[in-house]
Amino acid sequence: MQTDSEPMPECPKQLQPANRDIVDTLRTAGVAPQRMLELDQGRALAQWQNRQGEVRYERPRHHALSIYIDKGEQARRVLNGKVVSQGFPGAVCLFPAGSRSSWQISGQFEFFHLYFNDLDVARCAEQTWDADPDKRQLSELYHAEDPVLAQAGKLLALSDWQAPGQTMAMDHLAQWLLLQVVSRHSGVRQTLPEVTGQLSLRYRRMLQERIHAHLDQSLTLADMASWVNLSPYHFARLFRATFGCAPYQYVQEQRLIRARDLLRNSRDKITAIALCCGFNDSSQFSRAFKSRFGVSPSGYRSHSGSDQ
């Protein structure tokens, strides 16, 4: 599936921390996130560890998906003073905006949260299914079994969120999690559309040119999908079918190839090359470069005969 209509203009986005009621509630209860990652359009991932206490989510203004990754039997939902559900490894909870829930914690467990909002749900419904977003009301979900989302929790636990290029990979995963939530845990359940074929030659060349022109900038799945007027879901699948890898993998490879060329052919400092190729700092760049080419940037430059 593809379209050859004119691509939409790209819109640069700034990743800025948003105010999140559930994060504030947990911090007020004395729980600090072990790690947190701000993503595109206000979404965020957070990993938490709680040991004891009581927590009450009181009508948050955003949505949250929770996936337990370690233990959880001592996390209990309470309603009118009675325990109504109990956690377990892999348990899934969904807190729609405006929901209310109370929790008693009497033992250590770890869990992930994905934070998103109504606009994310609306975009997902419109772009993926061309559906009316007003009918996509999320369902409250407490300690449910969902093997697909539970497996995603394990993947999140194993991922190094600070690794080079990982922010883009995590944004890709967050888009996938959002799709799963909207398709299977909203008022209108719907299977994901089948995607076949490849991107046209015109789009293939245009993407290569635009990605190369934006390697020094933050690129997201939604950004690139908008260039060819596709939903992130359709774009990710057509891109993989066309290029043989995920978009974030392709971007990382192009950044490293550009860096290698600059190290060989320019006298720019390594830090400047790292920034020019979209890496946040020289340390992150060195790790990625050595992992890909088996030698550090400085070692490669020395071998190629260029000066720092």
Can you walk through the features of this model?
The protein is of the alpha+beta class and 308 residues long. Helix content is 42%, strand content 19%. The protein is built from eleven helices and ten strands. It has a six-stranded antiparallel beta sheet, sandwiched between helices. Strands 3-8-5-6 form a four-stranded antiparallel beta sheet. α9 crosses α10 (282-293). The longest helix is centred in the middle third of the chain and has 19 residues, at 166-184. It starts with 20 loop residues before the first helix and ends with a helix. The model is unreliable at 1-16 (pLDDT under 50).
By DSSP (H or I, 4+ residues per run), the number of helices equals 11
Number of strands: 10
From N to C, what is the helix and strand string? HEEEEEEEEEHEHHHHHHHHH
- What proportion strand? 15-25%
The end-to-end span amounts to 48 Å
Helix/sheet category: alpha+beta
| Shape summary | globular
What do the pLDDT scores average to? 89
Oligomeric nature of the chains:
single chain
Helical proportion, percent range: 40-55%
Sequence of strands across the biggest β-sheet: 1-2-9-4-7-10
The biggest beta sheet reads: 6 strands, antiparallel
Low-confidence stretches: 1-16
Task: Kindly summarize this structure in a few lines.
Helices cover 42% and strands 19% of the residues.
Q: Keywords for this structure?
A:
10 strands, alpha+beta, four-stranded antiparallel β-sheet, six-stranded antiparallel β-sheet, disordered N terminus, 308 residues
Task: Describe the secondary structure blueprint for this structure.
Elements: H1 21-28, E1 33-38, E2 44-50, E3 53-58, E4 63-70, E5 75-79, E6 82-86, E7 92-95, E8 100-105, E9 109-116, H2 118-129, E10 141-144, H3 147-158, H4 166-184, H5 201-213, H6 221-227, H7 232-243, H8 247-265, H9 270-276, H10 282-293, H11 297-304
Helix pairs in contact: 2-4, 6-7, 9-10
